[in-house]
Specification:
The protein is of the alpha/beta class. It has a domain at 12-189 and 231-255 and 287-306: Rossmann fold. The protein has 11 helices and 13 strands. The chain has helices at residues 21-32, 76-79, 94-99, 101-108, 110-122, 158-178, 202-212, 231-243, 260-270, 295-301, 309-324, and strands spanning 12-16, 36-41, 60-64, 84-87, 125-131, 182-187, 190-191, 216-219, 225-227, 229-230, 250-252, 257-259, 277-280. The strands form 4 sheets. It has a 7-stranded parallel beta sheet with strand order 3-2-1-4-5-6-11, sandwiched between helices. Helix 1 links the parallel strand 1 (12-16) and strand 2 (36-41). It is globular. It starts with 11 loop residues before the first strand and ends with a helix. The chain binds nicotinamide-adenine-dinucleotide (NAD). The site of nicotinamide-adenine-dinucleotide has 29 residues, from helix 1, strand 2 and strand 5.
Length: 325
């Protein structure tokens, strides 16, 4: 199944959270395609550095605002109609769950409603960045989109998991009741350049520790698994979904599953580090295993991840190494 490119030159795209890790890579590809891109970001977890290279780019505009307050009025870049709205804004790392719980709930709920309303007004395609966390600590492995998940609604991770589940429900409600053209992507663990070294997610944490020669802090026994996806593959998948007529939800990631212990060991080897592993108590509600069933993405979008973990980790380590000096 080949998806034809639908968004390119002459199209106006709104990307919320555009200064973040994944969204800034998306912005780059959209601008390369010739789209006019407006990014709205309040920098709660994003960084100016991620979009600094776009400062002189006439197709790109940055608006500093909190999308949970609604899109600001009277900002020229936000007045004209958008062809597509990509709602990517949300703090997403485990440390954010305890530091920014209300902000996460608001950007998943109130902001999603504001943006769906704007998509309805503009007749824009609305793409929601959802998450594998919608499956919680899964009882089904690998996870197909038809699995409804196992989320603790009052646990420490619930602010994120439930906000995204609400966002999915809101997206489908606007699709069913208002005819909005929508798409939901459930993103599995993604890594790559522009992640914050201190954001609390395993890969940047391990790489920073390995490069400093500090012990790598593995939670629990390290037997819990994740399937890690290099950011370029994820961006390719998201744009295939955007260009398609699919509603989703559609999983996006890779099927390459590895334990946290193996991941840490691989990072030590690839960084030529002498660090060792230390084991810390397991965090609450941390999923035991995580692997997407990619049948839908493959058959409906023709999606194929192309960057293996060795190559992806090398590129990411190189990026972190350069920033250390
Ligand atoms: N990286 C992953 O592995 C992963 C996995 C699943 C889902 N996702 C989703 O993908 C999206 C991007 O994640 P990321 O890893 O790049 O995180 P990130 O924190 O780097 O990017 C999120 C961006 O959103 C901005 N933001 C947050 N709240 C905002 C608000 N109220 N108003 C305006 N801007 C706001 C932040 O400042 C940041 O620039 C998120 O929606 C996240 O839930 C990511």
């Amino acid at each position: 199944m080949a998806v034809e490119r639908r968004y390119g030159e002459g199209h106006r795209i709104l990307v919320t959270g555009g200064a973040g890790f994944v969204p800034s890579h998306l912005v780059d590809v959209l601008v390369e395609r010739g789209c006019t891109v407006v990014a709205v970001d309040n920098f709660v977890t994003g960084s100016e550095e991620n979009i600094a290279h776009l400062r002189e780019q006439p197709l790109f505009t940055l608006v500093k605002a909190d999308v949970s307050d609604g899109l600001p009025e009277h900002v020229p870049a936000l007045v004209e109609r958008f062809d597509a709205i990509l709602h990517m804004a949300s703090p997403a790392s485990p440390t954010d769950f305890s530091a920014l719980p209300v902000e996460i709930l608001r950007v998943g709920s109130v902001a999603t409603l504001h943006l769906l309303e704007r998509a309805a007004e503009d007749g824009a395609r609305f793409l929601l960045a959802s998450t594998s966390e919608a499956y919680g600590d899964p009882h089904v492995h690998p996870q197909p989109e038809s699995y409804w998940g196992n989320v603790n609604p009052v646990g420490v991770r619930s602010v994120y998991d439930e906000a995204k589940r609400f966002a999915e429900a809101a997206t489908m409600a606007y699709h069913r009741s208002r005819g909005v053209d929508v798409a939901i992507v459930r993103i599995f663990n993604t890594y790559g350049p522009r992640m914050r070294p201190d954001d609390g997610r395993a890969i940047p944490t391990f790489i920073s520790q390995a490069l400093r020669g500090a012990p790598l802090t593995v939670h629990g026994s390290g037997d819990q698994t994740r399937s890690i996806c290099y950011v370029d593959d994820l961006v390719r998948g998201i744009l295939l979904l955007l260009d398609s007529a699919e509603t989703g939800p559609i999983n996006c990631g890779t099927e390459h599953e590895m334990s946290m212990r193996d991941l840490a060991t691989r990072i030590i080897e690839l960084s030529d580090s002498r660090s060792e592993l230390v084991f810390l108590p397991r965090t609450a509600d941390d999923p035991e295993m995580r692997r997407p069933d990619l049948t839908r993405a493959r058959t409906l979008l023709g999606y194929r991840p192309e960057v293996g973990p060795e190559e992806g980790l090398r590129r990411t380590i190189e990026h972190f190494r350069q920033r250390l000096h």
